[in-house]
Amino acid sequence: RSLLGSDPFFRVPGVVPELSSRRVLCTEWGRGEPLERCRSLPQERRDQICSELLRLCLLELFQFRFMQTDPNWANFLYEPQSHTVTLLDFGACRGFEREFTDHYIEVIRAAADRDEDKILRKSRDLKFLTGFESQAMESVHLQAVLLLGEPFWGPQPFDFGAQGTARGVRGLLPQMLRGRLGPPPEPSYALHRKLGGVFLACAHLGGRVRCRELFQQLYERYWHPQSPPKPGQPPRNPGEP
């Protein structure tokens, strides 16, 4: 709640200390409809919701380095009168070390630029690859990263309703499992669950999002944190170096 501050789109219920204890967290009441019931909204509204969901995900990873990793759609309540989303259920939050995000942001950058050499190099830095994989495994890994990165390099705005990213990655999984020489880095499990959930929510809503533009803004602010945020964007985490 503190990290999002006065964000114009997202709301986080305040904690009620006098009704909370060490094991029970009581918060203000959140109003709205779960995202799964928002398919009947006008296309423009759905596009805006999806754009904000992706913006939040990028903020959590690259600005706050603190993420709610449960993408259950019931944890996002849309209130049509105020056109805002209330965020619920923070039992699955986790932080990310700067060393991890420094490399991960460059993997996405490389995917957005379709720079295959950089994807492989940064994947080794992240320990997704050991450096001793077969050429076939490296090729499958590249396909998977480029599929997951398609929202950032494909036609803009990216039409999540028409994409087949999930099916494509599922088709590569058997080859990836056979060719892996080690497990993925531990932070990636929760992160990819959240990213996959956001992509599925955007696909369910049929959202069209300028993903590359959103990522470019966060990328610039990540490496140049002194740059002032654009109007309507929350300030950077005060604890950020």
Automatic annotation (TrEMBL):
Keyword terms: Kinase, Transferase
Residue ranges annotated for the ABC1 atypical kinase-like domain, each copy included: 4-121
GO molecular-function terms, A-Z: kinase activity
Pfam families: ABC1
Lipid biosynthesis among keywords: no
Domain of life: Eukaryota
Single GO BP term: ubiquinone biosynthetic process
Extent of the signal sequence: none
Protein name: COQ8B kinase
Organism whose genome encodes this protein: Dicaeum eximium
Source taxonomy: Eukaryota, Metazoa, Chordata, Craniata, Vertebrata
